[in-house]
Design brief:
Layout lengths: L1 H5 L5 H11 L17 H11 L1 H8 L13 H9 L3 H8 L11 H14 L7 H20 L4 H6 L16 H8 L5 H8 L3 H19 L18 H4 L7
Length: about 240
């Protein structure tokens, strides 16, 4: 519809602008759905929903030859079911000053929680099918984080091979959360994840840090404070065990 209006500069475009004015809306065109642009479909449908009255009037006008773009009430319901969760996630990870590796798991958890809850909601069957495919894609990327150099650099390398399930994170990815001061192991405890996974992540992380324990370091003036001025009591609380 957006392309049809734009390319009909003498008929459809003036009719669209007039309809916007008639319904008390700012004159604007529908965003284009671009396959290579993130969230362009969501952006297009969001504006289309805001301009429902205009879209219905334009597509319902036989003289404009746009009836093939007319939406039924059920189709508008599908538009209502399109959610902003993916839009929010892509915007978050597009910000240079905010996104970090440790935010990957929490964001995936938010999306996975939504996938888990949607079957209980009144969604159109087409939307439910799309969400099933989306969850399969999410799980695929979940399992691939162990192959990413970014995660391996954050926690050296590991030959550990584990089976990935829907809600079970790769161990290497977990390290980034464990070492994050706002998350640590407490995050996984609150999420109710398998204690075996949590214990495994801690054990491997401790093993990786063992070589540094025996390294020579200047003796601190205060025996309760380490060479870097950090309270030793705090060091023991690295993981915030649950």
């Amino acid at each position: 519809l957006s392309f049809a209006i734009i390319h009909s500069t003498t008929i459809a475009l003036p009719a669209w602008c007039e309809a916007c004015t008639t319904h008390g809306l700012n004159v604007r065109l529908l965003p284009r759905d671009v396959a290579t642009r993130w969230n362009s479909t969501y952006d297009m449908m969001k504006v289309a929903r805001e301009y429902t009255a205009v879209v219905d009037e334009i597509t319902g006008n036989k003289s404009l030859n746009l009836r093939k773009f007319e939406l039924s009430d059920k189709q508008w319901d599908i538009v209502d079911d399109l959610l902003h969760i993916f839009k929010s996630a892509t915007l978050l990870f597009s910000r240079d000053n905010i996104s970090t590796i440790a935010q990957v798991i929490p964001m995936m958890d938010v999306i996975d929680d939504f996938f888990t809850e949607t079957p209980t909601r009144m969604l159109h069957p087409a939307v439910k099918s799309a969400l099933t495919l989306a969850q399969a894609t999410l799980n695929k990327y979940y399992s691939r984080t162990d192959d990413s150099n970014v995660y391996r650099i954050a926690m050296s390398t590991s030959s550990l091979s584990l089976t990935i399930s829907v809600l079970t994170p790769p161990v290497l990815t977990m390290f980034n959360v464990v070492l994050h001061p706002n998350f640590k192991l407490e995050y996984f405890c609150k999420r109710g994840w398998d204690q075996v996974w949590i214990n495994t992540a801690e054990e491997i992380l401790r093993e990786e840090f063992k070589p540094y324990v025996d390294m020579d370091a200047p003796a601190p003036e205060d025996p309760k404070v380490c060479a870097h001025g950090v309270d030793i009591g705090y060091c023991y609380n690295l993981f915030i065990l649950c």
